[in-house]
Design goal:
Layout lengths: L1 H26 L5 E5 L6 H17 L3 E5 L6 H9 L6 E5 L2 H8 L10 E10 L1 E5 L8 H10 L5 E4 L5 H13 L4 E4 L3 H10 L4 E5 H10 L3 E5 L25 E8 L4 H15 L2 H9 L2 E5 L2 H21 L7
Parallel strand pairs: 1-2, 1-3, 6-7, 6-8
Antiparallel strand pairs: 3-10, 4-10, 4-11, 5-8, 5-9
Helix pairs in contact: 4-11, 6-11
Length: about 325
């Protein structure tokens, strides 16, 4: 008799959970959804987030709006999302700056444990490029030149501690080279000086640098991904010369801690559908992003791995924001 009651009790519990989940799914969202992009408008993350928000507005029959909250390397907007009510009406869309900031700043939240990963949008590669006046045509030649002319090659970045800086520091640590860092207030000015010959090297984003490589104004010598980029199929991965080198720029969506599993599953499924459309694939390709999708755990593991990578670089290269 007791066994029978236990079975009945379990059945009732499962039924309750089933109907509760269905009720949640049916009612969500019941008001506009906010996607916080913790960066300024116009960047890669912002552009992709707006396409996704438009598509999901049509699916959810509720407005899905992008809210740009830039500042402090993305930590201001990220903290707003972390502190939001975990009901699925506030999510965050982040890029690789999320993990580099976690390596640089003492955050008021844990970048992995205090969030709920939803879906990995994709990852982008950067391109190591040199000015044509430099006698370097490959990563191997870059390493040889930098070692025989220590400190004489100037490389530009968007600023100390930023993604464009850390990926070069990772390269230098692994390759054993020493170049001179010239930080700028943004990657645009650095690229302009490279084109003008005031700099010799940058590791630039695919959308901004690939057109100049194709036109011959710059020379592409390596990509930071594990495989060749479809944007520049003739440029080999840096890892071909420096085994193990890998510096992806991640893009993904997460929500506050304790976000209901039903909402996570719904977003993961619907975003995956958007990523599979031809329009979205073209948008991502133009931004140099390889679409990912996959379960939330994939994004969580990628975040954790990326943060650990940049923490090691910051420590070993002795990078501080006072530099």
């Amino acid at each position: 008799m007791m066994r029978f009651l236990r079975i009945v009790g379990c059945a009732v519990s499962l039924t309750t959970i089933f109907f509760a989940s269905n009720t949640l799914a049916q009612k969500y969202p019941n008001k506009p959804v906010r996607i916080i992009v913790p960066y300024a408008p116009g960047g890669g993350a912002d552009v992709v987030a707006r396409v996704i928000s438009q598509k999901l507005s049509e699916v959810f029959l509720q407005p899905v709006v992008v809210d740009n909250r830039s500042g402090a390397g993305g930590t201001i907007g990220s903290e707003i999302a972390v502190r939001a009510t975990p009901d699925g009406h506030t999510l965050a869309f982040v890029s690789g700056a999320y993990t580099t900031s976690a390596a640089l700043y003492k955050l008021p939240y844990h970048p992995v444990n205090d969030i709920t990963p939803v879906v990995m949008i994709g990852e982008a590669s950067s391109i190591a490029v040199v000015h044509p006046s430099v006698p370097i045509r490959s990563v191997k030649e870059l390493i040889a030149y930098a070692k025989t002319h220590p400190g004489q090659l100037n490389y530009g970045t968007g600023g100390t501690g930023g993604f464009s800086h850390l990926i070069v520091e990772l390269f230098e640590l692994m390759a054993g080279t020493r170049m001179t860092h010239i930080p700028y207030k943004g990657t645009g000015p650095a690229l302009n000086d490279l084109l003008g010959g005031q700099l010799q090297v940058i590791f630039g984003s695919t959308p901004s640098t690939a057109p100049h490589v194709k036109s011959g104004r710059l020379r592409g010598i390596g990509v930071t991904s594990k495989v060749r980029s479809s944007a520049l199929p003739d440029v080999p991965p840096i890892a071909d010369t420096v085994p193990g080198y890998y510096a992806p720029l991640l893009y993904g969506i997460w929500g506050p801690k304790a976000l209901p599993g039903e909402i996570v599953a719904l977003w993961n499924r619907e975003v995956a559908k958007v990523l599979q459309t031809g329009e979205m694939r073209d948008r991502l390709a133009n931004a140099g992003i390889d679409a990912a999708g996959g379960p939330p755990e994939q994004f969580r593991d990628a975040l954790r791995s990326d943060i650990e990578r940049w923490q090691k670089v910051v420590k070993n290269a002795k990078i501080t924001l006072a530099n």
